[in-house]
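Below is how a single chain appears once it has passed through the pipeline. First comes the sequence as given, then the structure the pipeline wrote out for it. We keep one example in the README because the format questions we get most often are answered faster by looking than by reading.
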Amino acid sequence: MDGPLIAVVGVCAAGKSTLVAGLSAQGWNARQVVQEHSYVPAMWQRITDPDILIFLDASLNTVRRRRGDPEFPARILEEQKARLAHARRYCHLYVDTDPLAAEQVLEVVLAWLRARESETRLQP
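Resulting structure:
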């Protein structure tokens, strides 16, 4: 695929794999970085060195609902957010996925990419 390399990071159940599949289906060069499981702060840079970094976030209630696990530990989510702090600080686009369905997350990201594309002449 041509175009900018897009890396998607975020907490578990935030919608990373779904967003990457949707972006890829639209012709964008997108990769999921499962950094929430790593203690390497800049892993997203080392693995993908992306042109665009998108951060997906979700609250504990949302993660529990999406995972179907009402007992998912808050401690694990907090650890993931700490591991992702570097990526969040340097992301180009931050999306709180709590109030959004998967299709809406894709729409938000595509709208942002298209606006950026028109500004910088990026192509998928």
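The chain has a mean pLDDT of 90.

See the next section for the split statistics.
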